[in-house]
Amino acid sequence: MRSILKGAANAKNGQKKPGQLSATSAIQREELAHAQPPSPSELDNIKTHLDLILLTLESLAGIGSEAILRAAVELKLEGMLMDRVSLWRLRQSNPLRKSQGGRKKLDVEEARSLVLAICHLAREHQELIRRAVALLEQLTERDRQPHEASLLGDYLDKFCNTYQERMEDGEETSPDYLSHLALKLLIDLLFYSGSNGHRHLWLALIDRSFPVK
């Protein structure tokens, strides 16, 4: 537990309040357009990572399709994220998901659009994310379990239950692994809620993979 909290203090110290954010969505889109593109083999990891981060936001803040589509409109990304069906198909591209047919291929522009929408929503809920991470730090320092705080307990239950419902290996994946994954993603979300969150997330998409077991 302590190992996944190491970066949380730096993440909080580097945050700006929403009113102080200087980068516009247009600048952020331009930055991502010039960022390192993923290789074809990395796209599967990207699909998985993006869907899991959206699951983190959904489990913590109750964010659903409508909030994501609203963010797309505010960021002028509605050409990529047009409606609930297109968003559902993008999330279904996650290779870990239970499939009901052929999967949609996620292209780089769609991935960039989801990155911007995720970071926009994370900034909107930054105070909630901060509070959850602060609770996690306090409980860890006292050698207490995250479930002892209602905010974290509700988040973990929602994340784990939804993962088990949606993912092919959900029933076989251990609850301890899912709880660890949920807390790791929660701390990552704190980084993504900052003014440079889109950069942090894009680098994470390129550099990381998410082995499920």
TrEMBL record:
InterPro entries: DUF3038. Residues 1-22 are annotated as: Disordered. Residues 1-17 have a biased composition (Low complexity). This is DUF3038 domain-containing protein.
